[in-house]
Amino acid sequence: MVEFEFGVYSLGERIPDASGNSPNAQSRVEAIIQVAKMADEAGLDIFGVGEHHRLDFVTSSYGMLLAAIARETKNIKLTSTLSVISTADPVRVYEDFATLDLLSNGRTEIIVGRGAFLESFSLFGESLDDYDELFDEKLHLFMKLQEREVVSWQGKFRSSLQNAQIAPRPVQKKLPLWIGVGGTPASAVRAGRLGVNMALGLLSGRPESTKPLVDLYWQAAREAGHDLSKLRVSVSGHSYIAETGEQAITEFVSHYNQYFGYFLKERGQQFRTTEEELMPQRAAGQILAVGSAEELAEKILHQHELFGHSRFMGQFDLGGKPLSRVEKAMDLLANKVAPMVRRALSK
């Protein structure tokens, strides 16, 4: 049985604070590296960086950020959260992550997906009309690159490969591969059918509403003949932990408002919540991963009964949260939440 893992990730946004001031790109990059080092020192299992191509993010070259982190950390696994492979060259992505695996001495994973933002399509000359076809073709090519050093391949969207040498090869025989899934049943079915791990992004609502999606994943994997014991599901989302649940909500709400308010405003929507409205989200039956260590452990165990997942990853640094609070929350995740969850699961 795989031990339940805990991690954190950053999307690297640098949105304005309540006073209208944004961190500069250099300071935000340094902050991400610092968070990764803190996570490693706390004893967490995995750290991720997401891909975005906008002025209000600093993670367009997320692979380079992970390479810098690889040299500043010792034990923590490193992953993308996620790689928008639809608009990238799978050969280049594979080469970058194989190199990252060499730099990190075998600590590299990769989560691929289509992403929640669409800016990379126009930036790299791809059409949204080919949204699903692009992902499917490039995912299959990436999986083929994992299998062989010399590859011949032909597709619709990329130039063909004829006895192409794919180098370097990673430390690991294969890079652990996950497919990022939001709320699309077809994506869950595809991950299960291909026998690829599923990284589930959950932001709000009740986990029971997501259970059918996970059931589809396990069913598709079973019907395709895959060994279910070798497949994994992870859950990720907005997170924060403090000594008490009330304190967690109080310290979280302004950053949550800043984060969601900023991104929804550009879509013509408004967002604002209050401490009173968020307090019920601490309950085990709610998805938002905010509360005390005991409350978050109870929430993860409740979701484990529904999903059978074996990894939790939280986005702790959203909305300009101070690094001192991020560090404290990660320490609680590593040294309080993780032991409670693992003890309960071992029984």
UniProtKB/TrEMBL annotation:
Coiled coil: none annotated. The keyword Oxidoreductase applies. The keyword Oxidoreductase applies. Pfam families: Bac_luciferase. Signal peptide: none annotated. Residues 18-308 form the Luciferase-like domain. One of its GO terms (cellular component) is cytosol. Keywords: Monooxygenase, Oxidoreductase. GO terms for molecular function: monooxygenase activity; oxidoreductase activity, acting on paired donors, with incorporation or reduction of molecular oxygen. This is LLM class flavin-dependent oxidoreductase. It comes from Paenibacillus lentus.
